[in-house]
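Section 5.1 Outputs to date
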Amino acid sequence: MSLSEHQDAASAWRRLSDELRGRVGESVFEMWLAPLQPSAFTGELLTLTAPPDTAGWVAGRYGPVIAAAACAALGEGTGVVIDDHAAIAAAGAQRARDRPGPRAPRRPASDDPAEGPLNPRYRFEQFIIGRGNHLAHAAALAVAENPGQAYNPLFLFAPPGMGKTHLLHAIGNYVSDYSPGAVIRLATAESFTNHFIAALNARGLEQFKRAYRDADVLLLDDVQFLASKAKTEEEFFHTFNALYDNGRQLVLTCDRFPRALTAIEQRLRERFEAGLVAEITPPDHATRVAILSKRAAVDGIAIADPDVLEMIADRVTDNIRALEGALIRVVAFHSLTRKPIDPELTVEVLDAMYPVMPERRPGSRTAGAAGDASGPRGRRRPGQPLTIAEIQMVVAERFGLTVEQLVSSSRAAKVTWPRQLAIALVRDLTGASLPAIGREFGGRNHTTILHACKRVSDRLKTDQQAVEDITRLRRQLSTDPDDRGC
């Protein structure tokens, strides 16, 4: 391919990328479509290459939307080929033309007790994809695109505040938008139980059964609340079978793995496990920052200093609901006090909600004097928290340095990498804030701390020795290793 042809292909891909971002959302684009690379463009056909392990999946799953976006961005009749998956150029374009456009979300009839309203904010475009929810998101999207055919049932489990309900509503909104006439039933296990009891008392059981068993898609939230309700379990068991046998889609959410629902009958637990069981785990740091950034954008909140989001993500680690709540609280304090949304205000607010424990607070006697909390060679006694001083000591010893050298201003290679590694470990393994970490590493500012963490994270992707270094250090510090790096 000549230079001009390459430029034409690259230009076409840029235009198509802009269109796709608007159609599928930023997070979906970055996860699945950004890895595509343009290889040729004839004016009528754009050829893209994809990673071998995802080419077929991307062509099959996103073919229609890519084809429709190509017609909009590059001109009517323009086709797209992903490697040798030529079907995207023809069949994909036809399906995209045949698919009806989005319509207003269905509002349930007020006299229909079986259907709850779908939250219009909970859509796939608003869902931030990360390592902890990648499988759950992909499965939910597959179910929304092909109800009853992809994964049935789909069982999503996670602790509260991890995004299960968001995905549940996103499925309902997607089906509602793109499948006119589809009957969607959304309920919690508690409301299902209440409706069932009301139907029994009012002699309206047949109407109750029709309300649920005529659904094309049944979305049931918090199924753990069916536990120890024998008659309700019995009814849901038959509802489940009726829907499943008729090829209708079931999506269930829960706060634990199906096998852990010991108070629910085994036959029902077995059906929960018959499809795809997808876990959602707490978001990593990068995902937490992305969630906060998205929430700020959706709510029209101007955050001039990106370190504000970093600091919130540092402190609130295991619950998306709490993470967004912390951002709202910072913004509320800004509105009430007229103080700027900056790191100082953020620390003031977060210290009231999520205080750093005194024994971990850098600069305190416990954090600064390893001998108070640690045994020989920097090892802490059982039950004692990990301290910054301990991490510094262990890292310095590992690389043949003194702690004074580690925190010094030296930029020598033999000091820089151990220092960056120590900073990353401190950020990952303690409750210290970025400014506090900076103070314990020679008075460095929070930007330098973030840079050090990014350097470690980047190096871990390509340097096996770096992976071995951090693994040994984690083991020596007696904490479970993970591959987050920062």
